[in-house]
Write a structure and sequence with these properties.
Layout: E1 2-7, E2 17-21, H1 31-36, H2 42-49, E3 52-57, E4 63-75, E5 78-85, E6 92-93, H3 94-97, E7 115-119, H4 123-129, E8 156-157, H5 160-169, E9 176-183, H6 210-220, H7 231-240, E10 247-251, H8 254-262, E11 270-278, E12 283-284, H9 288-294, H10 301-305, H11 318-330, E13 346-350, H12 356-360, E14 363-368, E15 383-389, H13 392-401, H14 406-409, H15 413-423, H16 428-433
Parallel strand pairs: 1-3, 8-15, 12-13
Antiparallel strand pairs: 1-7, 2-5, 3-4, 4-5, 4-6, 9-11, 10-14, 11-15, 13-14
Helix pairs in contact: 8-13
């Protein structure tokens, strides 16, 4: 195992510390490893510090340095690292590393993006085999451990009654608003919108082409979007049609979330995630912050990557000016001053009830900003708790008695027809036992 740390800021590896944005941590990292390091406990930090490191700059014409991490601290949305460069090992040109890049799990274009990846490869063994190091240059390595599998501490329910009891027993303050989301496989799904999903090797599936996805659906189905006033309205409709967006569905009805936790993967434990947040933090469809974040969907990734949050005159950047242009198209009187932190927020937003599905599911959304990451344990603004769900078949039968089923959750005639047909289909076993 080793750490690969890449930055665009020249000269920072000559200093003893650096800050990474949390959103760039675990990019280009195999999914199973990324899941294990998602929440950095003190024990996991010690494991990470035991891995050797490649310190690199963006671009394939730069030298790489070898060293180790001496400290890792979470600072809000940043990870502060302190490190030491190994002076026994001279800088290694990337051109020398490139022939063995696949053996080190350094992927195409990965060296051109600021990020921190954790790789399941033996760094020193690979460099020795390639003749890039010799035995005298390698000091005794620290003990390397693989991260342990996570153990769930969430309560488990196997009946609707028990679930309702858990929901009602949770303490709530009067100024909080609560939402729910159901996952059919608690070990597979994470709190990220479909746009941010990756394959098993940690590569983004859709994020690079967000602006193309947005425009292509508008081109091919323009009539469906004629009534939509804001970009957020369009994203909600696109989400309804299963296009990957930066929206994550949530609901104000816990039983709807329980249904989604049970409706598939019958042999896997599901879970219901409970989100609570101050009511004042909940936005509506016409929110300016929602417009700022939603309009990111219209920008090419290269332009989004050029937005710097470190510059003093934030709104004078060409990429930000283009974003403001998109916002003013839907809000002509929008003052051209974006608060930088607003673009990186995750906000809860209530969209228009523009279709029967949103209405029937009591739907709302979490809208993810630029490089936003929802910590699986929650954020300072959004508290997250979980309930594990098993015995799904029984729960679905109990929910049906409460009129929560495919016909009511997905209120289209084809779903109603399927539900009715399945419910009253001839069952030989039932016929036999009823005699």
């Amino acid at each position: 195992m080793y750490n690969l740390l890449v930055t665009a800021k020249r000269g920072v590896w000559d200093a003893p510390f650096y800050e990474f944005d949390k959103s760039r941590f675990l990019e280009y990292t195999t999914e199973s490893i990324a899941e294990a390091f998602k929440s950095l406990s003190p024990s996991l930090i010690e494991i990470l510090k035991g891995y050797p490191c490649i310190f690199a700059y963006e671009g394939d014409d730069q030298d790489l340095r070898i060293g180790k991490l001496t400290s890792i601290k979470e600072r809000g949305r940043k990870l502060l690292i302190e490190f030491e460069i190994d002076q026994n090992i001279p800088p290694i040109p990337f051109a020398d590393i490139e022939p063995i890049a696949p053996l080190l799990d350094i992927r195409d274009w990965e060296i051109n993006r600021t990020h921190w990846a954790v790789k399941d490869e033996d760094l020193f063994a690979r460099l020795l085999s390639a003749g890039l190091l010799n035995d005298e240059q390698i000091q005794e390595p620290d003990k390397q451990e693989k991260p342990p599998a996570k153990k769930s501490t969430a309560p488990k329910v196997s009946a609707v009654q028990g679930f309702i009891g858990k929901v009602l027993s949770s303490e709530r303050e009067s100024d909080l608003e609560v939402f729910y989301r159901g996952h059919s496989n608690k070990n597979k799904y994470k709190l990220e919108p479909s746009l941010f999903r990756k394959d098993d090797d940690g590569n983004y599936l859709y994020l690079e082409n967000e602006h193309i996805l947005y425009r292509e659906l508008l081109v091919s189905n323009s009539a469906d979007f004629q009534s939509d006033e804001y970009t957020l309205d369009k994203l909600v409709r696109m989400q309804h049609y299963s296009l990957p967006t930066r929206l994550l569905d949530i609901t104000s009805n816990p039983l709807i979330a329980l249904y989604f936790a049970c409706k598939s993967a019958p042999n896997e434990d599901g879970e219901v995630i409970i989100f609570s947040m101050p009511r004042k933090e909940v936005k509506y469809f016409d929110s300016d912050v929602a417009s700022c974040i939603s309009s990111l969907a219209r920008m090419p990734k290269g332009e989004k990557d050029r937005i710097s949050f470190e510059v003093e005159d934030f709104n004078n950047q060409s990429s930000v000016k283009r974003l403001i242009h998109f916002i003013k198209e839907e809000k002509p009187y929008f003052e051209p001053k974006i608060i930088p932190d607003d673009l990186r927020k995750i906000i809860c937003v209530k969209g228009k009830q523009s279709n029967d599905r949103i209405s029937s599911q009591s739907g709302a959304f979490l809208l993810y900003g630029l490089d936003s990451v929802m910590d699986e344990e929650g954020t300072p603004e959004i508290s997250v708790t979980r309930i594990t769900v098993d015995n799904k078949k029984k729960i679905l039968k109990e929910l049906d008695l409460l009129n929560i089923n495919e016909s009511t959750v997905f209120p289209y005639i084809e779903n109603s027809a399927k539900y009715v047909a399945d419910k009253y289909k001839f069952n030989k076993a039932l016929q036999w036992t009823s005699r």
